[in-house]
Amino acid sequence: MKRLRAYKIFLAEPVDQTGLNNLRAVLGLHPRGRLNDDWNYEFGYKYLKDTGVQAVKLVLWRADDAPWHLTVSYSNDNIPTAEELNRWQAEIIAGVESTGFSATIRDSPEQ
């Protein structure tokens, strides 16, 4: 089943262990990966709607050559409404900013 990305939310600042712990706690992410392991790229996830392959999923990522970012993705069999996507986007940004990080949205459903 193909997953589609609704948007990415990039963090402007680097993430240390305290920041990672705060992001996970505020956003309600299930922990994944260890910060000191260079090969770990996924650092937390949360099901926003449903579970399993049908889920709308929020994931926190680290990339070698890009800023840390969060993605919201969904299956082509379970497309969220624009209202849901906009609400989640606002909630995620508020959560990110409450931990002291700056957020930049890309691939917004409104663009």
How many alpha or pi helices? 2
Q: Would you report the number of β strands?
A: 6
For the residues shown, what is the average pLDDT?
A: 90
Low-confidence stretches: none
> N- to C-terminal separation?
25 Å
Which percent bin holds the helix content? 25-40%
Q: Helix- and strand-based class?
A: alpha+beta
Order of helix and strand elements from N to C terminus: EHEEEEHE
Gyration radius, rounded: 13 Å
Q: Indicate the proportion of strand residues.
A: 35-45%
Task: Give the CA-based shape.
Answer: globular
What is the spatial order of strands in the main beta sheet?
Answer: 2-3-4-5-1-6
The largest pleated sheet is described as:
6 strands, antiparallel
Q: What does it look like?
A:
With 111 residues, this protein is α+β, with helices and mostly antiparallel strands. It has a domain at 3-78. Helices cover 25% and strands 37% of the residues. The protein has two helices and six strands; from the N terminus they run βαββββαβ. The protein has a six-stranded antiparallel beta sheet, with helices on one face. The relative contact order is 0.29. The model has no long low-confidence stretch (mean pLDDT 90).
Considering the chains and any ligands shown, give keywords for the structure.
alpha+beta; single chain; six-stranded antiparallel beta sheet; about 110 residues
SSE inventory with pairings:
Elements: E1 3-11, H1 17-27, E2 30-31, E3 42-49, E4 56-63, E5 66-75, H2 82-98, E6 103-106
